[in-house]
Acyl-coenzyme A oxidase (Micractinium conductrix), 696 residues
Amino acid sequence: MSLPQRPDEATRRLVDPACRVTLAGAANPVDDAAAERLKATFDSEELAAFLHDGVDKLQRREELVKLLQSQPWSDKTHRYFLTREQEYVGGLEAAVGIWQQMRGERLSMEDGITMRSLAYFPGGLELHIGMFIPTILGQGTPEQQAKWLPLCNRLQIIGTYAQTELGHGTFVRGLQTVAVYDEASKEFVVHSPSLESTKWWPGGMGKTATHVILMARLFVKGKDYGPHSFVVQIRDLATHLPLAGVSVGDIGPKMGFNGVDNGYLSLDHVRIPRDAMLMRFAQVTEEGRYIPPPPDNQKAAYATMVYVRATIVRDSGDFLSRAVTIATRYAAVRRQTATKLGEPELQVLDYDNVQQILLPLMSRAYALVFMGRSMMDMYHSFDSARARGDFSVLPELHALSSGLKALSTDIAATGIETARRQCGGHGYMLASGLPTLFNSYVQNCTWEGDNNVMYLQTARYLMKAAIAVQTGKPLTGSAKYLSDAARQPNAKCQVAAPEDWRAPAHQLAALAAVAAQLTAQAAAVLARAGGGRPGVEGEAWNSSSVDLIRAARAHIALYLHQNFIECVEAASSQRKLSAGPAAVLRQLVALHGVATLLDAAGDLQERGYATGRQVALLRGEQRTLVRALRPNAVALTDSFGYPDYMLNSALGRRDGNVYQALLDSAKSSPLNATQEGPAWKPVLEPLLNPQARSRL
Ligand SMILES: CCCCCCCCCCCCCCCCCC(=O)SCCNC(=O)CCNC(=O)[C@H](O)C(C)(C)COP(=O)(O)OP(=O)(O)OC[C@H]1O[C@@H](n2cnc3c(N)ncnc32)[C@H](O)[C@@H]1OP(=O)(O)O
Ligand SMILES: Cc1cc2nc3c(=O)[nH]c(=O)nc-3n(C[C@H](O)[C@H](O)[C@H](O)COP(=O)(O)OP(=O)(O)OC[C@H]3O[C@@H](n4cnc5c(N)ncnc54)[C@H](O)[C@@H]3O)c2cc1C
């Protein structure tokens, strides 16, 4: 049954037979959604096609949505009502279902990846595809790849990445699990020597994985060579029971992501063959000689982490844009508060405070989408160079991917929660899609390197750059601006009018000034703490870490914005976009720059780069830009191109029919399966029913 969107005639007569009072203040949300699209000044479909690399890719997504909707394992109707066990089994069924479709229908890998993100049901196969296979690809010899990859691709084995232990996650060199080479048997003995060395967290290890990439400290002839990667079987393929010497299980419920069976693992002197060590870079010969990785790739064993951090950057824009889509569409159809009773209530999106939150968030989502593409391009060009034995870009790639992983996940996680809060009470419903989105995203700030720790890796690179500047060495790459800043230490902001703040040149100059100042400040603090000796470790490093993290964040914020400008200008100059969408993207770029600079308002003034008046102009310009973008708000969400099936949100649906969707969703609650409810017999009837009470 559908409820009337507006009070019907009978209701109006009931409350006021003379019809003097009108209840029709609430407009129809479906009409509001349609009206929003008429306001747009650009073709949202053209921008959507550009963002998805062509109309044919968008059409393919539509076909894949239909395919998914026809399969029981990808049905989302009851997704928000699942128990942990149902979520675990369902997540696996969805991943296996996609895999079977790919094989049976001969769909491409690209189709599979698209289906995964459309169905979005994280489960026990995430780490198999996300880290187990990439580690074998990145660190295995051709023979090892030939041995393991076909089994992985046919799902005849399922793997995960077992690095973190109960006692250590960040400090990889401190891992306690050991792999000791036994020259007599030409095997490694892998062992967990303490409670703290129990592996803890690997996704899919609890109940799904048959194999792990084990990160363990390699010992050869009594010498400790630090963490290396080994392929270790943990479960019998016929019975799925743990092998001898293996103790393994699920770690229990988490804040989110509960379809994934993160696990614990303890090993008791388990023997594995010598070729279980991944030996593309470091090797142990039969007779027990250790051959180290090439000098410019000392951290070869950490390579998968660089790859996964790049993918996390790629996905951040995707997650934030989903949240922004839901919140913006809902704010456009939600009406609240009329100046006078009976008059039309305002669309929530027309409240200034809501606009000033949602539209800057929209600009951040677009910036991250573009950053994600550039990050993957950077990673792929490193991968090609690596195949030729060239690791020269690795330090820059590691510094950027670490810092971008931290900044992009900080922005996305905070942004998803901010978007949820703009939806009022209905944002608290799982049916809105936002709580699950947040709970299944926020761990990105922690996994694959806690964000503070990741900023500190970027800071390590920055401090070396700062020292190079001091000694007059020329800089290249992302830190090049530090040399320019050193040549003009007293540069001042040249903004004279609010609209000056839109210019990329003013924005970049200001962001570079902040990053250079904070880098110089961190370098000075570090030098003071180290008694004048520059160093990137130890107590001096620790006591400087607040300044170091601020510097790294500012450096990455500059990089993110510069990338946004360059991508939009390139698309426009290469005529990949017509004037309408290009103009709107430029407004988003301008807003992103202004919003990023407002985050740094204190830093802009602290060292005298900008005056209080210039910062006031900046604030004013944000308002102007937000108002200019307001008519395009909903069209900009359409350009992200999310089908309703993917968002699975009562509030984010394209047609705006939010109230009906909320009610329909409530009706599928298991609590509503019977009219009296599950507590009637055991609890309520003995209290409330007079006959039952008399029997007490
Ligand atoms: C069909 C569909 C079905 C489903 C489909 C599924 C699809 C995919 C899904 C994807 C899911 C992915 C989920 C990911 C889950 C996360 C899993 C984890 O958390 S796993 C666990 C993740 N855990 C973590 O992330 C742990 C975080 N901790 C660490 O990474 C390290 O301990 C550390 C970096 C903090 C320090 O390391 P330490 O050894 O103490 O090093 P120092 O600081 O002393 O620096 C020495 C030198 O090394 C340099 N360098 C450093 N790293 C790298 C690198 N990677 N590279 C290159 N260089 C590097 C550094 O710059 C320095 O150079 P220099 O200045 O001397 O020239
Ligand atoms: C959902 C989820 C899934 C995961 N999946 C996997 C997986 O599949 N495989 C796997 O191996 N691991 C996995 N992990 C583990 C994850 O990689 C670690 O939790 C992460 O690297 C952080 O390490 P930690 O837990 O030891 O945090 P800690 O290092 O204990 O961090 C605690 C605090 O100390 C601070 N800190 C620590 N060291 C430093 C330092 N040197 N300088 C400054 N501050 C510091 C941190 O910033 C943080 O605030 C997963 C984690 C989660 C939450």
Remarks:
- Residues 305 and 684 are 54 Å apart (CA to CA).
